[in-house]
Recover the amino acids of this structure.
């Protein structure tokens, strides 16, 4: 599981663009998906904090915090910009931050109120995705198809194939570390 810092070092432009979408309204804003005890999804708006040190989120005492404490799997999706339907997505595992000096640094950056019952979680990055949509029509270059960039942590186990389990037959464009860093929308 890669830290945000490791991901950003490997794909700095992609990380910068995801950060811009997550922080487009000032403080971070996105939708956090967690896994309920019965295996179903749970989605809530959150304010992620992205620093050079990592990707963090302060989570109050709530069902989503209990989800993260029990299971740890998460997905974080950006709020769509007003002028176009671009999107950023990051998924991996959340882990509680116990180092009080680190908690204090991130709390200061994220302006977290000390009187609130929150816990700080760091989010690792197994998958990062950015989708940019052309504002032109179908006659524009690219046929109006979205441009999708995907980064996969080379150390994480990823299932092969698509949602139907069929292996992708398209030739991959390989990045620095030998994994597919850019895919077109199917």
């Amino acid at each position: 599981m890669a830290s945000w810092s490791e991901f950003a070092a490997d794909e700095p432009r992609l990380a910068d663009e995801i950060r811009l979408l997550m922080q487009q309204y000032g403080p971070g804003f996105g939708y956090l998906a967690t896994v309920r005890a019965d295996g179903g999804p749970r989605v809530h708006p959150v304010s992620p904090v992205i620093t050079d040190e990592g990707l963090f989120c302060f989570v109050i005492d709530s069902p989503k915090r209990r989800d993260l404490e029990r299971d740890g799997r998460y997905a974080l999706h950006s709020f769509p910009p007003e002028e176009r339907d671009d999107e950023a997505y990051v998924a991996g595992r959340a882990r509680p931050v116990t180092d009080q000096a680190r908690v204090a640094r991130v709390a200061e950056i994220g302006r977290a109120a000390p009187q609130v019952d929150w816990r700080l979680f760091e989010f690792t990055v197994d998958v990062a995705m950015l989708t940019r949509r052309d504002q032109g029509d179908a006659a524009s270059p690219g046929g109006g198809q979205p441009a999708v960039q995907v980064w996969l942590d080379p150390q994480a186990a990823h299932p092969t194939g698509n949602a139907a389990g069929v292996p992708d037959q398209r030739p991959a464009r390989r990045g620095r570390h030998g994994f597919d860093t850019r895919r077109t929308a199917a």
